[in-house]
């Protein structure tokens, strides 16, 4: 039945209105849009709902070259209209002819719904735009009854609603006039409801106006986001900005997926008339009006007969030619689907705050900023960053990935696979150069998390940035499974003293290695706890989904992942593949440009990397995360310890009873007895399952526990840091201009 075409549904309500047994109800779907739900206990399978569904089958018979007019009513009418005042003029015409007008009004809960009026004094209820999907409830049935009673009816709605009404009515009625509008899309009504309830006392709201005309109609969109002169919610007598919801509406974040590839955005249009803002008038000074201007499409002969009857009500009534320029009124083939919209609805219903989710979708505010090496050319770094991001988001928080160039090597490289992956998956800050302060992020983020991976490896990333020096003392500061890389950090005395204080500012600290706990206590005087790497803590299915996104189909291969590839390691990998009578798939770090006898492709995508780990017959690696993914997918493996990158990280695998698979030299590959031997991952699985809930509980507490009062020394630090920053920026400005 009709609920089987849910993905195509535009919520017009035709099926609800037509069902002879009243078995269909319009309910919120998981994204908060109205969608039909069928009570199959009472359904007689008459298929009436399918027959009236415009989403399944609808074709307009209107003109494919409609007449177009620039129209403006008298100033006193335009003052109370969204644009040029076409709708109140045609509505008044219908009402004065003893007709009925159906349009969208706010109800007492500030829900947008279609109502029918027959009195001129009720017309203001239908004026002004309501930027949310409306509930058509039972108006189609009521309109049919009025039409059958020979009453004149005007229906105003989105193009899909007009199409739905026509499908419901089956036949054309001479006494029906329809007006659709130039529609970019309809936001989720449940998101609107949630946003209002989070930010306002609904019982004290007396007016909502998305497009108030203060001094200039031209400023009635983006200026209305935070400026109460152009858009507001009147609560308890005080005008308040609509804020983030309006911003997200304008940036296409809250729309139904079908809206963004709408089949009604073309010509011919469904309704008799199409109306909308006529923004593109600058080529004619006559139309340069601060009071508003409408564009009106006259889509058929019925409309051509009606419009001249209204001519005297307009101060501007000019026929214009838009042939080949339909983009000027946003008609045509455009697609506004965005990653941010997809991410918003992926997390909607799971986030702790719909407001913060909306804010993050438009880059206004975030719950958490994550400092990690998601942007460098390293598969392990990219995937552990993804794991942490997913863990935090699963707890209901919005996350901003801080794009700081900590190694000065990878940024802006077109072949940076990590950044290609990141742009598909994350909210990302603006780019910060190596020596550029991220202090401004305090304005838009509440909590800062550093980790995981080797962010405290001092010989590689010798910056106080990784110790959150730029974060204000009033903000939450967390280290999550962050690593020093080595058992003993290579820090000079001055760095130790600075970081001892910086560590004291942290609210929660966890490290990846047990040795890190000892270092933090003995060198810096702070308590901490150690956990397994986050790639082992998330559920495997998040990586399975990445593997599914790969287009690789290889099978029966040995996967060799060598961060620091040498000819000796390469020959050892070939030896393993030959022993297993399998193909060799070998890759090095993303930056590898050396000569190789066996690499047929390098710098593969993150998704391809996961695919190879998941499907390998055997894995040989010198990478810590190469071992992690061998464990995740229970692949037989050998790991050659990479001493330069640190022995400490490998010790956690000993307690998983995997020590025999970790060797300290390439030569020992040739001493390995049986590459077909199946490794027992039972202990590893048990350890991981035992630790996972502890990690999530710790992280949840770290993100939610109320903070202690800021100390005087911390306030002094904030003052000095800001003074130093201001001074440094002043110096740079003087010398760099």
Low-confidence stretches: none
Coarse morphology: elongated
Helix content: 25-40%
Architecture per CATH nomenclature, i.e. the level-2 architecture of the domain at 365-537 and 707-722: 3-Layer(aba) Sandwich
CATH class of the domain at 365-537 and 707-722: Alpha Beta
State the major sheet.
Answer: 8 strands, mixed
Residue share in β-strands = 15-25%
Strand order of the largest sheet: 5-4-6-7-11-12-3-13
Superfamily at the CATH H level of the domain at 365-537 and 707-722? 3-Deoxy-D-manno-octulosonic-acid transferase, N-terminal domain
Count of extended strands: 25
Q: Please work out how many helical segments DSSP would assign.
A: 22
- Nearest-angstrom radius of gyration? 32 Å
Report the end-to-end length measured between terminal Cα atoms: 67 Å
Estimated structural class = alpha/beta
Mean pLDDT, rounded to whole units? 90
CATH topology grouping of the domain at 365-537 and 707-722: Rossmann fold
Map the helices and strands.
Blueprint: H1 14-18, E1 24-28, E2 34-38, H2 48-51, E3 67-73, H3 75-78, H4 86-96, E4 100-106, E5 112-117, H5 139-148, E6 153-157, H6 159-169, E7 176-181, H7 189-199, E8 205-209, E9 232-235, E10 238-240, H8 244-250, E11 273-277, E12 294-298, H9 301-306, E13 314-320, H10 339-347, H11 354-361, E14 366-371, H12 379-394, E15 399-404, H13 417-425, E16 427-432, E17 445-450, E18 476-482, H14 493-504, E19 508-511, H15 514-524, E20 529-530, H16 534-537, H17 541-549, E21 557-562, H18 567-579, E22 583-588, H19 606-615, E23 618-621, H20 624-632, E24 637-640, E25 662-663, H21 682-704, H22 712-736
Helix pairs in contact: 8-11, 10-11, 17-19
